[in-house]
Amino acid sequence: MAAAPDSPTGTRAQLVAAAAELFADRGIAHVSLREIARAAHQGNTNAAQYHFGSRAALLAAVLAPHDERVDARRHVLLDQYEANAEADLRTLAAAYVLPLAAELSDEAGRRYLRIVGEIFDRPDPAVDPAPTGTDGSSVHRWRRLVEPLLDPDAATTFHVRFSAMRFAHHEFARRAAASHRRDDQLFTSRITDLVAALLAAPVSGPTARLLAARRTGRRPAQPRPGRPSG
Known about the structure:
Blueprint: H1 8-26, H2 33-39, H3 47-52, H4 55-84, H5 89-101, H6 107-121, H7 138-146, H8 152-156, H9 160-177, H10 184-200, H11 205-216
Helix pairs in contact: 1-2, 1-4, 1-6, 4-5, 4-7, 5-7, 5-9, 5-10, 6-9, 9-10
């Protein structure tokens, strides 16, 4: 049975729905708790403050049900990966990407993707976009399975796993915001290709030399300009 609109549970649900729409459309930092309360048709403009205490807590409530769905889907894919016992970066890329792609199927999921895309792009996110410290999270598990397949410097110095995650979320946020979308399968497959490519990208010679110079404290040699042609 659905909660009555004027019950505490019903009020919280209305506030969460209003916040999701406003955060997705206008950005997290540009929406006040009072605006959310008004959008949720609350006579008390302090309703969001009363029920959640802060914008960060309300944002976490918006994300939670989607995070749980994404987490569950990803665990299923990682179970399959481990059962097959074959190391493959594209399969792991798909395990990260496909649970996000499933959120494109409805408006609530698309709002979620837009909000999380913003969080990944922010230098100081209001909530942790990648709860890697939680041992039971699918993200933590995914990172652990990916790491042995990466160049060590790419994994530890350049944080390529987070770069791949951020790229995926950016692209899905952009897709979720598009007003006219065709078949999402081709888009999702290509994003999977690109995430796998990011993970597999080697540390190039020039980058390795700059990294070695940083570690030794020596100034890297500057390339000499070529002689003008003609």
